[in-house]
Amino acid sequence: MALINAPRGTRDILPGESWKWAYIVKTASQTMRDFGFSEIHLPIFEHTELFSRGVGETTDIVEKEMYTFNDRGGRSITLRPEATAGVMRAALENNLCVQGASAKLWNWGPMFRHERPQKGRYRQFYQIDAECLGIAGPRADVEVITLSIELFRRLGLKNLEVVINSVGCEKCRPVYRQKLIDYFSAHKDKLCETCLTRLDRNPLRILDCKQEECGKIADGAPDIFDSLCDECREHFAEVRAGLERLGFTYTLNKRLVRGLDYYTKTAYEILSGDLGAQNAVAGGGRYDNLASAIGGSKVPGVGFACGVDRVMLVMEEQGCSFGKAPSIEVYAAALDDASRGAVQVLTYELRKNNIAAESDTVGKSFKAQMKAAGVCKFACIIGPDELANNVVAVKNLDDGSQEKISREEVVSYLKAKL
Ligand code: HAM
């Protein structure tokens, strides 16, 4: 029988890589703390409606990419394709934003989208996500964008570009939408099939089409900035001024509309020059109508999510540091079978004292044990002599020197040396 493999678009994060992931998440956790964001844990599956209403019926995610199934109770369940709708649901359900209160929340974990797998694009991928709920003013947008930039600065990512846009609000977007329908209808013959289906349902998405011909037409499309209402225009100006005050550079891109329908006003992405086609390491923006779209009271929000898989690719590509790789510091070896029990006791004592220690559990010869010890800084050797004299032979594996240390003092001796 052939071995069952992992499903297409998923992968195993093995020990050689997992410690690097831990470094990224730890750096994110510290950055979030410094920015006043608290961690939350959310369900990985939610009611399908949360995403169809929250992310939007006409988005690629909802139309073609969700992992949706009926559970045994006949309810339609979806593996989360993103985190924002779930965070908003949790905040509303748990009354985190009642009477004008705000909440700054972050989470990380796997998301699921049935996309065509390629470099930097997986069907199970990981996001670090931050959401600032309950604040309508532009300083919250600036804070969220700053947080994402700071996270990447701490991780050492270079060659990034921050791209921002405003996608308007429920007041000004319908006007812009109609202008786009009028414009693109006049160029119908040149649009790709997907864009033709978008024409009436979601014309803003045509701006985002990656097909060359559609791109050329989209370049000549009416400018969103000419359609923004005063409130959106002012909001965007303040976001830009805030970013400039902080010394950040950014690019304006009127064609940046993002693939999720909940955005209002600010939309942004952070792009890497080292990723190829899937070049966004993070994306986010404001979503002031998401709460009402999922049946809640009006709670404004702004946030971002970064793709851990992609960040990892860029960090490897750019040779960024992941801190120190975990390693065993001390190997305890038994000279003979009678010493194996004492070696296990010593190993546990070292571990209890936060010293990364290893010893043999399969009955290897002394020679094989010392070979395994090769990667460590010290070997602790116990044999009949050591047992009789209540000592341990401590060998410094860097310089080969060896000394006998009393059994009672061996842990403190090693602690001082490591
Ligand atoms: P998104 O742009 O769909 O936004 O995803 C955010 C990031 O997740 C992307 O920039 C990318 O790094 C990563 N990503 C997305 N899809 C994949 C994939 N198939 N494989 C690998 N990485 C991927 C959102 O999800 C919004 N919820 C972000 C947000 C938070 N907006 C407001 N708050």
Describe this structure in words.
The protein has 418 residues and is an alpha+beta fold. It folds into 2 domains: 15-172 and 228-318, Bira Bifunctional Protein, Domain 2 (BirA Bifunctional Protein, domain 2); 330-412, Anticodon-binding domain (Rossmann fold). Helix content is 37%, strand content 21%. The chain has 15 helices and 16 strands. The chain has helices spanning 15-34, 48-54, 60-65, 84-93, 138-155, 173-185, 193-201, 212-219, 230-245, 290-293, 308-318, 340-352, 366-372, 384-389, 410-417, and strands at 38-39, 45-47, 67-70, 76-79, 103-112, 124-133, 160-166, 251-252, 266-272, 280-286, 301-307, 330-334, 357-359, 378-382, 391-396, 402-406. An 8-stranded mixed sheet has the order 1-5-6-11-10-9-7-8, with helices on both faces. A hairpin with a 5-residue loop joins strand 15 (391-396) and strand 16. Helix 1 packs antiparallel against helix 5 (138-155). 38% of the residues are buried. The structure holds histidyl-adenosine monophosphate (HAM).
* C-alpha Rg (nearest Å): 28 Å
N/C terminus separation: 49 Å
CATH architectural type of the largest domain:
2-Layer Sandwich
Q: What would CATH call the homologous superfamily of the largest domain?
A: Bira Bifunctional Protein, Domain 2
Determine the strand fraction and express it as a percent band. 15-25%
Question: Structural class of the helices, strands and pairings?
Answer: alpha+beta
Number of domains: 2
Bound molecules: histidyl-adenosine monophosphate
Largest sheet, in brief, is: 8 strands, mixed
DSSP summary: helix tally: 15
Q: What oligomeric assembly is this protein in?
A: single chain
* Strand segment count: 16
Output the CATH topology of the largest domain. Answer: BirA Bifunctional Protein, domain 2
CATH class bucket of the largest domain? Alpha Beta
- How would you describe the shape? elongated
Strand line-up across the major sheet: 1-5-6-11-10-9-7-8
